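STRUCTURE:
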């Protein structure tokens, strides 16, 4: 990885979630990938983008009343995931979904 992603270049964030399970007796795989890089127009690093944007989206959802659950609740249970992903995409953070 150091050859393709040197430490002295703009950063990248690589995220992969993989789920394997059985449905109807057949093994299936679901994968989500995010590849994000520094935004040269704003100067925001990939790490800044992929940590601050989700936190900001959740805070905005809370302020607008879109989060109805209170207390120590995992965000994936408290928010509309489609709306959250749409807000990420609006900020040019794309989640690629694949099945196998």
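SEQUENCE:
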């Amino acid at each position: 990885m150091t050859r393709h992603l040197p430490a002295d270049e703009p950063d990248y964030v690589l995220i992969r979630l993989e789920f394997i399970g059985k449905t109807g007796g057949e093994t299936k795989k679901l994968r989500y990938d995010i590849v994000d890089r520094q935004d040269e127009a704003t100067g925001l690093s990939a790490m800044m983008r992929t940590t601050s944007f989700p936190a900001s989206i959740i805070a905005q959802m809370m302020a607008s009343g879109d989060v109805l659950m209170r207390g120590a609740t995992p965000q994936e249970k408290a928010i509309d995931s489609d709306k959250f992903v749409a807000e990420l995409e609006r900020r040019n953070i794309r989640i690629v979904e694949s099945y196998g």
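REMARK: DSSP finds three helices and three strands in the chain.
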